[in-house]
Structure formats: structure tokens, C-alpha cells
Write a structure and sequence with these properties.
The complex is a heterodimer of chains A (about 350) and B (about 200). With about 350 residues, chain A is mainly alpha-helical. Chain A has a two-stranded antiparallel sheet with strand order 1-2. Chain A is built from 13 helices and two strands, in the order H-H-H-E-E-H-H-H-H-H-H-H-H-H-H. Chain B is α+β, with helices and mostly antiparallel strands and about 200 residues long. Helices cover about 25% and strands about 10% of the residues of chain B. Chain B has six helices and five strands, in the order ααβαββαββαα. Chain B has helices at about 15-20, 25-35, 80, 125-130, 155-160, 175-185; strands at about 60-65, 90-95, 105-115, 135, 150-155. The longest helix of chain B has 15 residues, at about 25-35. The chains are: A mainly alpha (about 350), B alpha+beta (about 200). The interface of A and B includes residues 34, 40, 41 and 312 of A.
Chain lengths: ~350, ~200
Amino acid sequence: MELTLFIVKSVIILAVFTITLVVAMYSTLAERKVAGFMQDRPGPNRAGPFGIFQPLADAGKMFFKEDFIPAQANKWLFILGPSLAMLTACLTSAVIPFGNTLKIGGQEIAVQGVHSNIGILYVFGLVALGVYGVMIGGWASNNKFSLLGAIRAGSQNISYEIAMGLSIIAILMMTGSLSIREIIGQQHGGNWNIFYQPLGFILFLVCAFAECNRTPFDLPECETELVGGYHTEYSSMKLGFYLFAEYINIFVSSLMISALYFGGYNFPGMDWVYAQLTASLGDVTGHNVATLIGTAVFFAKALFFIFVFMWVRWTLPRFRYDQLMNLGWKSLIPLAILNILITGTGVLYLKPVFTAWFN
Amino acid sequence: MQLTNRSKQVSNKEMTFGERIYLPAVVTGMAITLKHFFKKKVTIQYPEVKRYLGPVFRGRHILKRDEQGRERCTACGLCAVACPAEAISMVAEEREKGQEGLYREEKYAAVYEINMLRCIFCGLCEEACPKQAIYLRHDEFVPVFSERDQVVWGKDMLVENMNNQYKREAWTKEEAHALDQKRAAGEIVNVEPRAIP
């Protein structure tokens, strides 16, 4: 049944895409709400109950603003910048497995856009590409502040990608696979990587903040020093795309954090839930419902990490640029290498000892 | 000199390891923000909920009437003279026979205008008025205006509506002062707000 597969895959891809965009859209509202709550005020609450139509109002405002392109700017690259930022941000969620499998028409179909056995490489490749949007936009603006912001973004992302990649290597050593689905599968039964890789998790989290250009590492858009950073010259929906891409990146980072370290769609007692559901609803429906519950759990974890992103933003002040570079090169990278050594020791020497001891 | 008991001596000591790794400080900070996250919000939802601004607040102007509903203003022009922003202007007219029920004095203001863009709400007109005719309300603002013709308020906006009179606990400085002193002395005085100065 190729047709069923095609239809179900299309629906899944569409759903993943829609959910990503909606989550990013409501992240803008959540950001302002969280900011408000942490500063003892209620945040936006005029557009609809609890301000739930605020993102629509913001989008409307963005669309109706003047779409300005500076006279000396490189017009095509100026347009390409935000488009590229948005494109790379949207592409990233394709390989993330949102749930186990769905049984439809006698087939087991994975809840995932594209089943790829090099999912992590794909995500990292696109995250690395994401800096091009910022670089091109900042350069094409023909404005020294934009260029400085873009250069900062470029050097910051490259510096922190190294530490991020090294912290992931420890996970790859443990699982022996680049497939995100495989990594999640190995965390089944409470075997979450956070318990084996606490240092790696902290490194990954810090690097994720830096990669998303979020406070305390939001130097590319540091308004006290650089006016608006790389998007100084941007207005209307082009600016909206940059901001939107940032929120999509946050969502994808949260998904990656929960997939790599917090078991993805695994949750405690899921085998018991699965057994109960298949017993009461039948093999097919029960399996599908259990998968959907897992997906919901995955999203809950990701939403929690989105909250952490905002929580940190409204708690910490910005780093100075030399502090940022010192932290990245002199602390995070050595720590990541240390983490690899420790993990290697654990995998090679301690694991056989422990397995022998437990058996 | 100690100004507060919360001041801390600045020191240049070497940071300890715990301070240098920065994470404990981050966690402490995040605990503080999370505490605030669940705190009661201090915002007053303004157009729906209005805060009481106190009996001495100077809001929009009102031209008082006396107990029989006659306008108290006699168009002497002292308010206009006292006004530092020169916001007040008026045209005086003589009271005709048969108008005794409308105007208290033999002379009255046929036109009385206050420019609300010029007014600085200092209350000097209120103090200058010998007839206790003009007051700044403590309970109402000048509403937001969007057109220029809404800026200059004439008698139609200023003169008191007898069906919805402006009431106050004290109408003169002396009265208010006496009330304050009684309250400061601990006697809880409940004065019924009244409409007649």
C-alpha cells in the first residue's frame, strides 16, 4: 500500500510543519507572558482572553509595516538573508522522530518526517547553515552595526558548534548510532542519557543557548552596543522572519535536548500503559493511542525546555564578548573533551564490569 | 555614613571555585525569577479597575452650582488671572430679570472656556475663586481626546449636573486640615461627602 504510506507521511509532515510554526508563533506570546510574570506583571492580555490572539495581531502589524530596503544595500542578498534563516530553521524538524510508530492499513509508519540514519548530522549541518542567514543579512545591509552583529553571530556560532559537537560525541559513543530514533529507542525504560551524561547535558544546553543567539549569549543583537545587531536595517515581515526563525530554532533545540538527554517520547511506566491500552482497545488502536501519548509527552518535554530558554533569558544579563569567547574556548571545549575521555573510560572499562556485576 | 542596612562592603577577593563556575549563581538567580513567576501581580487593570487617588487629587474641572441649582460663578476673572498657563477665558454678562433661578450673582459667565491642552492642573483657579465656584474633581480625569475641537471645554462640559453632583468630604483648606488633624489624632471621623461647598 504505497498510497497509504504516502498519505500518512504527507499528513505527518504537514502536521509537524504546522505544529512547529504554531509553537514558534505562540512562543512569541509565551516569551512576553513569561517576561511579564517574572517581573510581577500579567503580560499582554488585551487581544482575546489571556492575550491568545496577540501573535495574530503582531503578525498583522508586521505585514502592514513599510518593507524598507536601504539604497546602498545589496538587494537580493538582503532578501535572501531572512529567507535563508527561515528555510534552515523550518527544515531542521524534518528528521526529528516525534513518536514511535502508527499502525495504519497493516503498515507500521514512523511518526517522523524523514527517517534518516544520520539525523544528528543533518540537524547539525542545518544549524551550521543557519548562521548564513544572519551573516548574509548583516553583510547585505551595508551598515557597520549590522556587519558587526553578523560577524559576532558568525564567530559565536562557529565557536559554540565545536563544543556542541564534542558534547554530542559522548552520546554517540554510548549509543553507537547517529539516528535520533535509535538514540531515543536506547533510552527506553528510564535509561535517560541525562543520568549518564550530566556534564554533557550542561555543555549541550549552554551551547544550544549560544546557537540560538539567546540571552546570555545574544551578542549579535546586543542593542546597547550595536543598535539592533544584524537586523538593524530590517523591517516588516523580513524582521518578522528573523525573529520567527529564532523561535523555531528554540523549539528545535528543545526537541533535540529532550530527544538526546530526556528520552524523547519515552516516559516512566510506558510499557504498563502500552499493555493496558493494547489489552483494552485492541492491538492496532491501542498501539496508535500509546504512540500519540508518547508524542504528547515529547512535546511536553520540549515545551518545558522552551520555558527554560525564556526563564534564563529573563534571569541572566548578557555576557561581554571576551567572556563569551573565554567561556566557549577555554571552558566548554576542554570540558567537552574531558567528558569524552570519561565517557570512553566508562564505555570501555566500567560498563563490562557493571554488566557482569548486575548479572 | 550608612544610608541603608542593605549596603555591602565591596571586596576584590579572589573568587572561589564555586563562584567561578558561575552555575550556582545562575541557579540562585533562576530560583528568584521563578519565585516571582508565581507571585501576585501588582498591575492594576486600568480602564476596568481604577485606583483611588486620594481626596487631594486634581482631576478635571467643574463649575459648581449652589443648593438651589444656581451657577455660583460670577465671572470675576480671578481664576483666569491666577492661571499660570492662561488656559481660562470667559465672557461676563449681566443677569436679566427672571434669571434669578439660574444665576446666583447679578453678573454671570455667559461663556466660560478652559483649554485642556494648556491646563497644568495646578489648582490655583480653585484657590483664587472667591465664590467657591470652580473646583478640580478628585474622582475624574479629563478623558482622552482625539480631535482638536474636543480640547477647549465650554460651559456644557464644565457646569455641574444636578442629577449627578460632585461630592467632597471637605470643601475648604481649613475644613480639610481640621479633618486631617482629627484623623491623625486617632479619632476615626467618617464625614459624609456633601455636594454643597
